[in-house]
């Protein structure tokens, strides 16, 4: 028998003497520890800098740090992909600080997807440099939405290492690059931290912002080298190459030490007396189960981070854990807290210190603490609900075991009542042995590319060879015929009066924005893009802002306003919408006799018809009807058709077509995130007995972004894997005739009716077989 590990012992102790059901544990595995591989400091690092590193506690670099640093120093773009807490910062600090010390003009730019992470990096850099007069001229400085106007001016004139994010780079730096001429002329390094974050629409926008950055730096006479870092990046060299549009070298051999990590997969049991939609059984929620584990671990003295998907989930889980502790160990109640986005930097720092010092033993958090935060001494991580990607799962898992002594840790994934989570806790290899997913980006999506072309032309005239390199010939021709771009001798210019930068929301919105306003205080709570407003901020919708709940009173799409008031109801809402699809173009197709699978361009017309109010226990409270205007989205879809004869042959009679296809569609939407790094809310679907464009039983799964964010393309490329996993998920679910863990969808426009679970298994089996037969 295997020796008990730190993790198994902790789990065992926590479960002993509680009513926790051990049958919830579906899998347990142990990832072995690893010892450090050190090398000497590269000879090009100045002695003063080596002394500063040693003083900060780093005696020698690990192998991967020196390898990546050396490549970067010698002007090769590097993708560094090594584990969490493997000291990726040192890998770029070495060459950047060395060059900045040797060449008094050179500059560097650091980009992170969040402001908080940039602030952490500056803090650790400042602490490294403090007390060394020879570094005072480096002046690292943040330049983001929180930076005061005077500091911005100062930073432009004096800072040699700017810390910013892609949003600010786009709107605040590239848009006014003339004011940054000195900085760009000497730009030697660009750090793109936490690269795996740049996926989907945000990734495509960032890829174009980076291309614009490189061309501006080059036109100013510089030739910067890029390092991209991540603990969880598939094919790192290719991923960085796609992101910056230039070849990069990968460094993946990890020389840092690692403790033993025990991973447990956990499926909460069905609740005995509760039923959901159409009488379906309901499982205990991932949040409630996570709170129970959090309280148990805290009682055992294990410092634990518990990740939840929503801010509200964070608040509720912390509250519930404290409530449980009040009964069993009241002295520990105040050692548990909630952490959510929206905290000020100082509060966040205090909280991180309280976790590091052990004053706080348990913290429930959103993914705000997932990225690169260096908190030491954590023993356990609870992942309350699969976070959507394997990459995120490992990022969250990697927050534990960061202490240098043993570094042993326990990670528990608690499944939500949803097909993907169900699948993963019963197929551990699909989570634990699968490489992290490739980041899906598509910078040639014309809806994303076109506005960036205007920005690029406004920054510097566009050259034909750049247009070719960006694959932008058609988009430029369209802009020219619309009179937005004009050709002159020096290249393409924007037409007078065109100011394109403000029209881009690089976090995903394409098109207009709806402002969400609290009518009791007139405070702006946030924005949502117009296309998504009817399904997210419809009247009656629950909206969460920084952990506070609001209920929407009114949505005015023409004025771009959603009005809300604060309220703390004990229910959540999910919009119900109907969908129509028209196929506008077949991009690729594969005919396998009775089955056709195709990648198609489509126009999707949505109409929100109501919403469902669900109690936090999972019980459905009621369904409310709504009449919202229809909206059309041009995007990409994966589509399959099956002949009626083939369906009947496998025992799905005509009367069962709608339920079988509908259930197969729901489950496939739930499982697409397995093959494309997306969230189930990024995609939608439609199934029909006979579609006007195909005259056959047809299922569509479409990308929820204008022009597509690459998710449907990925589903098409991985179609057989995706369908096989979907079939497995549905058939391994223990419910009788369909539940949220397999074929029910939280956003179904038809109230999850009709659904035929057995029919779906037959359809999915049939597709899998025909696809391979047609191979
Ligand atoms: N060569 C080294 N020897 C000892 N300690 C080191 C070494 N390099 C880095 N460290 C320490 O390891 C810790 C983690 O470093 P860092 O935060 O840079 O890791 P990371 O790889 O960026 O982590 P994540 O991916 O989780 O953000 C820091 O406390 C750092 O001081």
UniProtKB/TrEMBL annotation:
Under Gene Ontology molecular function, one entry of this record is: 3'-5' DNA helicase activity
- Report domain Helicase ATP-binding positions: 69-251
Entry-linked Pfam families: DEAD, Helicase_C, MZB, WHD_HRQ1
Keyword set includes Nucleotide-binding? yes
Keyword Protease among UniProt keywords:
no
What are the residue boundaries of the Helicase C-terminal domain, all occurrences included?
A: 293-447
Q: Which InterPro entries match?
A: DEAD/DEAH_box_helicase_dom, Helicase_ATP-bd, Helicase_C-like, Helicase_put_actinobac, HRQ1_WHD, MZB, P-loop_NTPase
Taxonomic superkingdom? Bacteria
Q: Which UniProt keywords apply?
A: ATP-binding, Helicase, Hydrolase, Nucleotide-binding
Q: Which GO terms describe its biological process?
A: interstrand cross-link repair; nucleotide-excision repair
| Protein known as | Putative ATP-dependent helicase
Q: Which source organism?
A: Gordonia rhizosphera NBRC 16068
